[in-house]
Amino acid sequence: MKGGELEVCFERLMMVGGGRVNIISDWNEIPMELLLRIVSLLDDRTVIVASAVCCGWRDAICLGVTHLSLSWCKNNMNNMVLSLAPKFKNLRGLILRQDKPQLLDNAVEVIANNCHDLEDLDLSKSFKLSDRSLYALAHGCQNLIKLNISGCSSFSDNALAYLTSYCKKLKILNLCGCVKAASDKALKAIGYNCSQLQSLVLGWCEEVGDDGVTSLAHGCHDLRALDLCGCVLITDESVIALANNCPHLRSLGLYYCQNITDQAIYALAHSRATNKHQAWGSVRTRDEEGSGLMNLNISQCTALTPPAVQALCDSFPALHTCPGRHSLIISGCLNLTSVHCACAFQAHRVDHTLPHHAY
């Protein structure tokens, strides 16, 4: 609904009561319950326009709007946040993703001072933000469950560690490209403070090493997805720690982690292998196929050999190399082209068991 359509909507609003139809003659006459229903139907841009219609609309928006995205705002996002955050106090989700950096620390501070129930915050590509923003969020938004600060290259590991000491409910954290913030020191703090963490993106955080990842593995046993792509310092020690301590791990990104060897792959295969010796042709339940690793990226991990990677595939039938279902990514590893997933064995079995009719 566009801003200009609000009047059209208003003209059509009618209330039925006392055996007759009453036409609403003024915005202020709309009951709060109906306003809340109307607000729930508005898109983000129209919500902002509607908040200025009258005090009734403003109050309805304060009560009814829980999720808002301003990513469509290309030029004046900072001032918009400064104006809107004090009105939208019940926000639980706020998306401020930017194509070009607009947000400043003062906008994040206003968010932290007013939106204390915020659970999902996206500040990706906010290159102008400093540690002030993380300190403000630590004190004002302690209910955060999902935080995306990917590309925020000015944040320090001290500020990130401080944030985790207050925002202990974090389950999803994106630190991709946070080259200063994502260090072993920060990962140790995350492992110590954020035991509920389920997903962490550390892509191209080149300061991350084994000390940080092992601390993370020991502290975050419910970890489901971990992206270590481009973390060139990690070795088998990190993967072995994950294999031994994170039984719910479903997705692991190791692109360009060229220090990873077969020892790490065998550790993954042996730690959570289910029904490893079960015949490929037998029937598996959906739960059985969905257990253990379901996505693994080992592209450019050139030290790996086919026997180790094949053992991993044998242990986790949800890892696929077949066309259309690639969940085991091995690009750049020419020596691994002989590795095949369960589908290939099943196809081979079917091909040899089907009767061939003479024509």
UniProtKB/TrEMBL annotation:
InterPro entries: F-box-like_dom_sf, F-box_dom, FBXL15_LRR, Leu-rich_rpt_Cys-con_subtyp, LRR_dom_sf. It comes from the Eukaryota. Gene3D superfamilies: Ribonuclease Inhibitor. Transmembrane segments: none annotated. One of its GO terms (cellular component) is SCF ubiquitin ligase complex. It holds the Pfam family F-box-like. Residues 141-278 form the F-box/LRR-repeat protein 15-like leucin rich repeat domain. This is F-box domain, leucine-rich repeat domain superfamily, F-box-like domain superfamily. It comes from Helianthus annuus (Common sunflower).
